[in-house]
Write a structure and sequence with these properties.
alpha+beta; 60s Ribosomal Protein L30, Chain: A; elongated
Length: 219
């Protein structure tokens, strides 16, 4: 019985040795190539216009230099924190649409402003100002839903209290005239500044046609 047992164990020992040798074999090294250096991230600063005018002036500064933007659609690029701003360039229309077309399409249009002038001591518009009413109503409808703001003003003749009331009447008159023209804004705000905000600075009790006005803003 012992001999039989030995013959049965020998193949098992051989297999065990083979497995142990296999387990002790050094694994082959896996060589992983180093990742490519990441390209520096670039930032672009662009000075947007406000309507058809330059919106202001911007100084782009970091630890390595600065550049001034003072033209509409002027831009500078910064490649990384180790670099100063690049030289300003003015983007052409094609580049603007290619890079910022989607953003510009989602940006609300800038407000539109109108000045309407009145006859002396009343809320009746001058004829040339009445001619602007259809255009204003059209812009309100094109921007639907639009917010309409109308601020009435006066010249400096008369008391503060009287002119405040006259400014309110002028603002309300413009709102009513625009409604007759078909303007249907989402909201209308009428207010008065009376003689406290003169367009043309004059001494008190001075008649000035350019101060007898209503300022209309459409957003």
């Amino acid at each position: 019985m012992k001999g039989v047992s030995c013959r049965l164990l020998l193949p098992s020992l051989g297999l065990l040795v083979a497995l142990l040798l296999s387990g002790c074999a050094a694994p082959k090294p896996v060589i992983v190539p180093p990742p490519e250096a990441a390209a520096p991230r670039k930032s672009m600063i662009v000075l947007l216009p406000e309507g058809d005018k330059v919106s202001g002036e911007v100084t782009v500064t970091n630890a390595n230099g600065s550049e001034v933007l003072n033209q509409s659609w002027q831009a500078v690029e910064i490649a990384g924190i180790q670099d100063g701003p690049g030289k300003p360039v003015v983007l052409q229309d094609a580049a603007v649409q290619d890079q910022f077309g989607a953003v510009l399409a989602a940006t609300p249009a800038p407000p539109v402003h109108y000045l309407l002038y009145f006859k002396v001591n009343c809320a009746e518009l001058l004829p040339e100002s009445r001619l602007l009413l259809p255009e204003i109503a059209r812009v309100v409808q094109e921007r639907s839903p639009a917010a309409l703001s109308i601020v009435g003003h006066t010249d400096s003749v008369g008391s503060v209290k009287y002119n405040y009331g006259l400014g309110l009447k002028r603002a309300a008159a413009v709102a009513e005239l625009l409604a007759r023209e078909g303007a249907a804004p989402a909201s209308v705000e009428t207010s008065s500044r009376g003689k406290s905000d003169l367009k043309v600075k004059t001494p008190d009790q001075t008649p000035e046609p350019r101060n007898r006005r209503a300022e209309v803003s459409i957003r």
